[in-house]
Each structure stands twice: as structure tokens, then as C-alpha cells.
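Worked Example 4.2. Consider the chain below.
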Amino acid sequence: CHTAGMLTPNGKEYAQKIPREELTHLILRLLQAWKEPLSNFNQHIEHHQELPDDSLSKAKQISNMVHELKTGVEKVTEKMQSMGIISNSLNGMASPEGTGLSISNEANMMSDSDFIHCFRRDSNKVQSYLKILKCRIMPENSC
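Applying the procedure from the previous section yields the following C-alpha cells:
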């Protein structure tokens, strides 16, 4: 996976020990890391004439959802910064330069099944990290 070089907590227990600010940064980095590979994947599958239209539509929908999620996390981050929950040190961290990853052709050279496996793995991480972050910010949710 092209994100394998990113240092992420190995398990929920470790993720719960990461400070809110670092966890937020990690979420943004993972989402940013998938922007270009998902775009390339969409272009790749558009050339597969044998794929049904709904598969193409789903791939585009996933890319749009990742983009919307990243935008939403950025807005929540800004709100957290304005409330003093986290510092302003995350500014610019969601940019490609701030991810610490150089997207090589590794994501482009993966088989479709490997690509989907990696995307699912990282999506599960983001989902877990968001749940942890939510529980830390709003403990009244009885997490």
C-alpha cells in the first residue's frame, strides 16, 4: 500500500493514547494520501469497457465522499482550533506537501483488488480515528 510508510497506531489502544492534535493530523494525512490515487483509479476504470456503469458511478462516488470527508474534517479542525481544543499547528498539514508522502506510481501499479484492499484498510483506520476523536471532544456521547 502506498500509505504503508505512514506511521499509524497499531490497534485501538494505541490510537486512544495519541493526543487529539496528532490524531486529527493523522486523519487529514490519510485522507489527503488517497486523493490522487483515487483520481487515477477512476481514470483507470473508465477505460474498462466491460465494467457496468454503476461500477464507474460507485468509484466516482467514493472519490467524492473522500473529498467531502476531508473537507468536513478540515472544517471541524478549524472549529476545534477556534475553540482552543487544539493549536493552530495543523495549518497546511492537509496539503500534499504536509502529508509527508510522495505519491509514487506504487498506487497506480497495484492490482485493482490490492488497491481496494489498501483503501478499505485505510478507510477503517480513518473511521476508528474519527470515533476516538469524537469521544474525546464530546465525552457526553458515552463512548
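The chain has six helices and no strands. The helical segments are 12-17, 20-33, 35-46, 53-82, 106-109, 112-137. Compare this with Example 4.1 before moving on.
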